[in-house]
Specification:
The chain has a 6-stranded mixed beta sheet. The protein has a single domain, classed as Nuclear Transport Factor 2, Chain: A. Helices cover 33% and strands 41% of the residues. The chain is globular, with a radius of gyration of 15 Å. It contains 4 helices and 6 strands.
Length: 138
């Protein structure tokens, strides 16, 4: 397999094991200790521990949250991934909002950089407008 194919497989494994199954030990295995996640819209940065906490908090709000990778493109040490996250907000408060029972779908585009088999950084943007639009309708 090429370096690019290996890097895409690593990102797919991260998505499946960490986001979909909540296995934070795999996050420690696949994310470099100095990992940084950057939200391209807000400029906010998150460390490996911050990201793990955010993933766990998000998962705790939904009984059926799932992320599926729709597209991946890799070149050199970068992997661009478009994914769709979908779940029902039915378990716990999220960002100050009480559970609503509403199913929300959010599209994400992330650029991961992989060095020596570890994800060292991620830059991403999410379209969370469906979340806020649904909340405004209630």
């Amino acid at each position: 397999m090429s370096v690019e194919e290996n890097n895409k497989a690593l990102v797919r494994r991260f998505n499946e094991k960490v986001y979909n199954r909540g296995n934070m030990d795999v996050a420690d295995e696949l994310l470099a200790p100095n990992f940084v996640s950057r939200d391209t819209l807000t400029g906010e940065e998150a460390s490996r521990e911050d990201l793990k906490r955010e993933i766990a908090e998000q998962a705790a709000t939904s009984s059926d949250l799932h992320f599926s990778i729709e597209e991946q493109i890799a070149e050199g040490d970068k992997v661009v991934t478009r994914s769709i996250g979908s779940g029902t907000h039915d378990l716990a408060e999220y960002e100050g909002l009480a559970p609503s029972g509403v199913r929300i779908t959010i599209e994400n585009i992330d650029i991961y950089r992989v060095v020596e088999g570890k994800i060292v950084d991620e830059r991403g943007v999410s379209d969370s407008s469906p979340w806020w639009r649904r909340r405004m309708e209630q």
